[in-house]
Write a structure and sequence with these properties.
Elements (H helix, E strand, L loop, with lengths): L1 H19 L7 E6 L3 H6 L17 E3 L34 E2 L5 E10 L3 E8 L21 E4 L9 E7 L7 E10 L4 E10 L1
Parallel strand pairs: 3-9
Antiparallel strand pairs: 1-4, 2-9, 4-7, 5-6, 5-8, 8-9
Length: about 200
C-alpha cells in the first residue's frame, strides 16, 4: 500500500511539473521602459495594486488584439480580474514617462520566462483618449505604430530592447499598449504605459 501511494504521489508531481512547463505557465513578461503600470506597482512607485505588485509578468489574456483579446475597459489587465487595478485610471494620475513625437525610443521588455513569439506590437491612443476612464479600443489608433516580428523564436535574453519611433501629432497624456503575441498558445501578454507629450 505504501509503495502504491508513493508511486501516485510521484506521478502527480511529474504531471504537475509537466503542466507547469507547458503553455502559458512557461511564458511571462512585461514592459519595463517606458514603465508599465505593472512595473510601477512592482517597484513600489504606485501602491494599492493588489496581486500585480507580486506578479508584474503575469498580465496574460487572449491574443488577436484588436479584433479579439481582452474586452474594452479591461485591456490593461489582459481581461484578468485579479489585476483589475491596472484598468483603474486613478483619475488620470498614473506616473507618466515624458515623450516627444518623432523621437527614437528604446522599448524594453523584462521576461521571467521566455516563450516562442509571433511578434511584439505597440499601439498608442488617439485624440479621443480620456486618461480618467478605462481604456477602450476606440481610443487607440487602429494599427500598431511598431511591430517587431519574431517568427516563432523566443526572446534571446531576460531583457530585450526594441527601437521604434514615437508617433507625431500627439499632445498631453496618452497611453501605449504593448502586446507580446505568443506563437504556440492562444494568449498574449499586455502592458499599458502612461506617457506625457
Amino acid at each position: 500500500m505504501r509503495g502504491k501511494l508513493g508511486a501516485v504521489v510521484i506521478g502527480l508531481g511529474v504531471f504537475g511539473a509537466c503542466v507547469l512547463a507547458t503553455g502559458s505557465a512557461s511564458s511571462h513578461g512585461y514592459i519595463s521602459q517606458p514603465p508599465s503600470r505593472q512595473a510601477l506597482c512592482a517597484d513600489g512607485t504606485v501602491d494599492d495594486c493588489g496581486d500585480i505588485q507580486y506578479e508584474p509578468q503575469s498580465v496574460e489574456g487572449p491574443k488577436g488584439f484588436p479584433a479579439a483579446g481582452p474586452p474594452d475597459g479591461a485591456i490593461c489587465s489582459g481581461g484578468n480580474s485579479r489585476f483589475a487595478q491596472l484598468d483603474d485610471p486613478r483619475g488620470g494620475q498614473w506616473p507618466a514617462a515624458q515623450l516627444t513625437g518623432g523621437q527614437a525610443y528604446d522599448f524594453s521588455w523584462t521576461f521571467t520566462a521566455r516563450h516562442a513569439t509571433t511578434d511584439f506590437e505597440f499601439f498608442i491612443t488617439n485624440d479621443s483618449y480620456d486618461p480618467s476612464r478605462p481604456l477602450t479600443r476606440a481610443e487607440l489608433q487602429p494599427q500598431p505604430f511598431l511591430t517587431v516580428p519574431y517568427g516563432g523564436r523566443p526572446p534571446s535574453s531576460d531583457t530585450v530592447t526594441q527601437q521604434g519611433t514615437i508617433p507625431t501629432g500627439l499632445t498631453g497624456r496618452h497611453l501605449i499598449l504593448a502586446v507580446w503575441n505568443i506563437a504556440d498558445t492562444g494568449n498574449a501578454f499586455y502592458a499599458c504605459s502612461d506617457v506625457q507629450f
